[in-house]
Write a structure and sequence with these properties.
Number of helices: 6
Order of helices and strands: HHHHHH
Radius of gyration: 20 Å
Number of strands: 0
Helix content: over 70%
Oligomer: single chain
Distance between the termini: 71 Å
């Protein structure tokens, strides 16, 4: 193993640890902010919805698995000496981070643990915001693909794709919730 491979492996390990900790830190921060909004004192932690906390932590585990798979593919391609792999290290690190964030957010959205999205009044505006941001990043990234050797443009396009995926997941979760509410209402009307 030469020096550049050792450096890349070290960076990957540090990156993996940071991305693994990110969902846990984010879940803790979101929980604290929600408690402050509700005006709950610190001793009321046992009354908090533990289901959402467990979903967020499980989503963090799945994000870690996705990142581990991503890093494994990266390492295989590194050892196969795929051309133009090392110059794009920053873009590839950002892609791994975005993958982990999309997996974590996506699972939280689909399983009902995304706090801001679960407030019904914010749903439509959040979906529109995510789709708008995704389209903007895709357009900006597409225009920068040729201008800046592709690296910055690829990063911007990855961000756009991540916003579009999350917006699509929000739309899907909203659709499923509305279908479940209609079925529940129909079931209540028959009895």
């Amino acid at each position: 193993m030469n020096t550049s491979e050792k450096i890349i492996l070290t960076v990957l390990v540090i990156f993996a640890v940071l991305v693994w900790l990110m969902p846990i830190v984010a879940a803790t921060y979101i929980e604290q902010q929600e408690r402050k909004k509700r005006g709950e004192p610190d001793e009321s932690r046992a009354q908090y919805d533990e289901r959402q906390k467990l979903i967020r932590l499980e989503a963090g585990t799945h994000a870690l698995y996705a990142l581990g798979g991503y890093l494994l593919v990266w390492m295989v391609l590194e050892f196969l000496d795929v051309p133009l792999w090392e110059p794009r290290t920053l873009t590839l690190l950002a892609a791994g981070l975005l993958l982990a964030v999309v997996v974590w957010n996506g699972e939280c959205i689909l399983r009902g643990a995304m706090l801001g999205f679960n407030q019904r009044k914010n749903e439509a505006s959040q979906i529109i915001l995510y789709f708008s941001l995704g389209l903007c990043w895709l357009v900006i990234g597409g225009s920068n693909l040729e201008a800046m050797s592709g690296s910055l443009g690829a990063m911007q396009m990855l961000m756009g794709a991540s916003f579009l995926i999350q917006g699509g997941l929000m739309l899907y979760a909203r659709h499923n919730r509305k279908l479940a509410e209609k079925q529940l209402d129909a079931g209540d009307g028959e009895t």
